[in-house]
Amino acid sequence: MTINCKGQLIDFSSPKVMGILNITPDSFYDGGLHNSKKAILKHVEQMLNEGATFIDVGAYSSRPNADYISEDEELKRILPVIDLILKVFPKTLISIDTFRSNIAQKCIKAGAALINDISAGKLDDNMLQTIAHLKVPYIMMHMRGTPQTMKQETNYNNMVSDILFYFSERIAAAKALGIIDVIIDPGFGFSKTTEQNYELLNKLELFKMIEKPLLVGVSRKSMIYKILDTSAKEALNGTSALNTIALQKGASILRVHDVKEAMECIKLVESLHD
Fold this sequence. Notes:
Distance between the termini: 20 Å
Number of helices: 9
Strand order of the largest sheet: 8-7-6-5-4-3-10-9
Order of helices and strands: EEEHEHEHEHEHEHEHHEH
């Protein structure tokens, strides 16, 4: 499986790492940490040096009960960061974590390479059309409701079947518009209880039937630190454990705060097949 990013073919026969750059003041783990040009560039340089293929930039926190921010505020936060990164590291493949088509359009025009949408187009009716027009890779995640309401949206008939059906419907809608490069993200922590997150991880190999690259984002999430009775800050070891399981079950991309450790997981799991 491959995707075309700004003319560069990304081959997922070997899994890739997406490093997280949160520029929000209220993200669950690193909110407010990257609030200066120096801090942003230092973090991006570290992630690229450690092996990240993509840098995922988010200006709107999608944690449960996150504060609402306007489109203007989201743009004001994110556009200067794209410009800053590409001036210093011009070959960076920047992913934009947004569910708004207007943000997607302006960020791609500014030099970003792909869009990472937590709602798979369900929170903005113009998103799929915009992606088709932009001709960029599109990450579609499974979520119900919004970041503000998703904790109440955890009742399923059969969770994994429901999520597989959701992706078949969203991929068909994307394909009808000519969108080819789609990556799926089952949405760990989004409208799922801790128990449901582990059921999803346990059955992750079922998502291979969709025949699209699979992104897994469990980095430092509550599904780890609640089980271990610790905190996001102390959840790196748990993150590596779950990333290893995800890789063994077919993950193509690990979306993480800690790139070096994720790359080590990939190297070790690939050694099993050598």
